Structure formats: structure tokens, C-alpha cells
Amino acid sequence: MTPTELEAQIAALPKVVLHDHLDGGLRPQTVIELAADVGHDLPADGAEALATWFADSADSGSLPRYLETFDHTIAVMQTADALRRVAREAVVDLATDGVVYAELRWAPEQHLQRGLSLQETVDAVQVGIEEGVSVAAETGRGIQVGQLVTAMRHADRWTEIAELAVANRENGVVGFDIAGAELGFPPSRFPETWRYLADQNFPVTIHAGEADGVDSVAEAVHLGQATRIGHGVRILEDVVFDESTRTATLGPLANWVRDHQITLEVCPSSNVQTGAATSIAEHPINRLKELDFAVALSTDNRLMSRTSMTQEMTLLVQECGWTIDDLADVTLTAAWSAFIHHDERRALVDDVVLPGFQKIEGAQL
User: Fold this and answer.
1) Which stretches are annotated as coiled coil (predicted)?
2) What is the pTM of this model?
């Protein structure tokens, strides 16, 4: 199978993405047009040159440096019209890539510079999402999309943002997250936030185990009561491998995460860029999957990583020898881990994901 044929076959698969940042998935041309509207200077001219700048700048091996690229995307997402457009285009782009369910995460507190209130930002994004779903439907592509409202780790607004998320649970918000620089900003900064979310029976995912180690993951699952972990690849620091016997001994935290099937939202290309993995071929996702951790595949930031779900799947097939069964496994794990009710997850699996994979039953990737 040629690379083109392989990518075409993978593009036809149904996909579920749980970890996709709204401010990390803009179209380069959209960044240019929105920047012109608000007078924001960009580091490159033209869509192709700008796309290259984002990818090259993100490819630093450092999470803090990676996060600097967001200064430009956030700067152009400060009006209701801009938020609506970015959300609409994100949904359309994901649907075009074969995504049937997505959760878009973003931090409302970063979009207040031109006078919007927190609630107005949520409303604008929701309108954009609904518009995107309608546009996708017109082209014959069905997609379901929820918002993941995020608080920034270095700021002091965690409980306020958590309350915003809960207040909008009937307005498209499906869960809560904290993001940003992981090291030095653990969940224990604001333990009352997690107590509030638990009391409200509200779903939580937490970035952990990317730029910090097992202690970060431990706080996420025990204090934060997260049922999903953003990235989480450094949980392998709590696993001892004997290469001579091909056996692994899991430590207490690794056992806890695996025993409770806490989903790891793994983003291979992004992890290589930030230094959480050395390469796709040597990415921890392979060992995590072999050890029966609950692994879901995601994109993280499609602009910064110049990626898509089709691209992430293709890389794993080409560089790690993944098969159609492996792709089905991570897709089903993601679907069953979505922050929607059980009957909705069941419908997503039975009516959308499984039939989509069965259409190419016997395919040789």
C-alpha cells in the first residue's frame, strides 16, 4: 500500500478526539485575517510561512517554549465573532478529518482582553460549535462536539472557572480541565476546586504526566479525582521493565491508574515536540497499550503540530506497526471515555464507531 493509499484508508475511519485545544487548532489563514482585524503583528507573512513558523517554534523540546506559540492565537481570539469563527472552523475541520465526536478544550479567562465576560466567551464558542455541526451535516458528515472549559494552572481562578463550567453544563460544556505549565502548579494549589466539582458530579480531566512526573499524576487522580489524564505518558516512571524477560512490574500508582482504567489522552506528535517522548517510533503509547492501560489517541494542537487524527493514526501505523485493530482499540477507548452519559456513549459506539470500522473489515493497514 502506498503512503497515499494508506492515508486515504485511515482518513475514512471514524475518529474520536478527546484532547484538542481550540486555540491550538486555528487555520493559518484565519490567524492572518483575524490578526489584521485587530492590528496584531504576526511573526511570518502568508499562510504557509505562518504554518511553518508555528510548527518550527513548537518543535523545541520544551513545554514552556511550546506554550509561547499560543500568544499569537489567543491574541486574535478576543471577540465574540472571532471565537465563533474559530470554533465553527475547528468543528468543520475535525469533521472533514472523519472525527465523529470531539471535545474542544479552551480557557475562557484568556479571552477577556477586549471586554467580553466569561459567560459571553462560552456563549460565543457554543454558537460556533453549533454552526460547525450544521455545516458539517450539510456535507454529509455527522459530528458531536462538547466544550471542555479549562482553568490556567498559573492563575488563581480555578474555582471561578469551575463554577462557570458547571453553570454551562446544559449549554454545551461537558467537563473541566487545568492546563498550562505543569511543573510547579499542581492540583493541590486549590483543593477546594476539586471538592466543588466532585460535589457537583462534574467530569474532570487534568493535564498531568507530560512536563512533570508521577507525583503530578497522583495528585490528578487522587486529589483532582480525574477520570481522564491529559497526556499521562510519564506514568511509565512508576513501571520497572526487565528487558531480558520482557516483563514489567507496576508500582502502586501505575497499578491504580491501570486498575481503574483511567484514560490517558495521548498526543504523540505533540509529546515529541515538548520532549515528553523522543520519537514516534519510541513513543510511550506503544508500551502503555501493551500493558493494557486505557489509551485514547488525540491531536492536542493541530496547528502547532501540523497534524490531524488521520496524521496521528498514519504515523503510528508507519512507524510503530499499528494495525486496524490497534486503531479500533484506541478509538473505542476514547468513545467509552467521552464526557457524555452512558447511553450516549453506547449509541456513539454501536451506531457510529463500530459500523465505521466494520465497513473496512479485513483491511490491511
Assistant:
1) none
2) 0.96
